[in-house]
Amino acid sequence: MIKVLSIVLISVSLWSAENIAIVKNVSGQVLVKHDVSFVPIKKGSFLYAGDVLQTSDKSSVGVIFNDGTVISLGAKSTFMVNTYRFKPSANDYAIDMGLSKGNAIVETGKIGKLAPQNFSFKIPQGTVGIRGTKFIVDVEE
């Protein structure tokens, strides 16, 4: 009974959460952590605020966010989405994401153009300033 209730509660929390991005391509083994554990991800899967993506050796993933921001992760990367808000009707825009290891190519979307001060991309030794641009980040271990 407790297992069934747990599954229902997790399903309800994912159902009520707003998806923020879609996975456009996957090569090799890529995992996503929605809440508690990492599970394999596939093309067409949705991402949610708070998710963590991990790519293994010889793997990559491409993601498109609702505002048009594009992220491509290379092998052995760990990427997290801390905050994502894209609500044009309320003039509410924010992205807070980061790369703790690996490499990424990022092309900002509407949030980077409309509210660049609210676009944060963190790396272990600093933060990348965004001004509606495209950039490459490589975090070495």
Which helices and strands, and how do they pair?
Layout: H1 2-16, E1 19-27, E2 30-33, E3 38-40, E4 46-48, E5 52-55, E6 60-65, E7 70-73, E8 78-87, E9 92-107, H2 110-114, E10 119-123, E11 126-129, E12 134-139
Parallel strand pairs: 9-10
Antiparallel strand pairs: 1-4, 1-6, 2-3, 2-5, 5-8, 6-7, 7-9, 8-9, 9-12, 10-11
Order of helices and strands: HEEEEEEEEEHEEE
Shape descriptor: globular
Radius of gyration: 15 Å
Structural category is: mainly beta
Q: How far apart lie the N and C ends? A: 44 Å
Mean pLDDT: 86
Q: How much of the sequence is in beta strands?
A: over 45%
Q: Strand tally, please?
A: 12
How many strands, which pairing sense, and closed or not: the largest β-sheet? Answer: 12 strands, mixed
Helix content: 10-25%
Tally of helical segments: 2
> Unreliable segments (pLDDT under 50, ≥5 consecutive)?
3-16
Folded structure, characterized:
- This protein has helices spanning 2-16, 110-114; strands spanning 19-27, 30-33, 38-40, 46-48, 52-55, 60-65, 70-73, 78-87, 92-107, 119-123, 126-129, 134-139.
- It contains two helices and twelve strands.
- The chain is globular and about 40 Å long.
- The longest helix is centred in the N-terminal third of the chain and has 15 residues, at 2-16.
- It is mainly β and 141 residues long.
- β9 (92-107), α2 (110-114) and β10 (119-123) form a beta-alpha-beta unit.
- Strands 1, 2, 3, 4, 5, 6, 7, 8, 9, 10, 11 and 12 form a twelve-stranded mixed β-sheet that branches.
- The N and C termini lie far apart (44 Å).
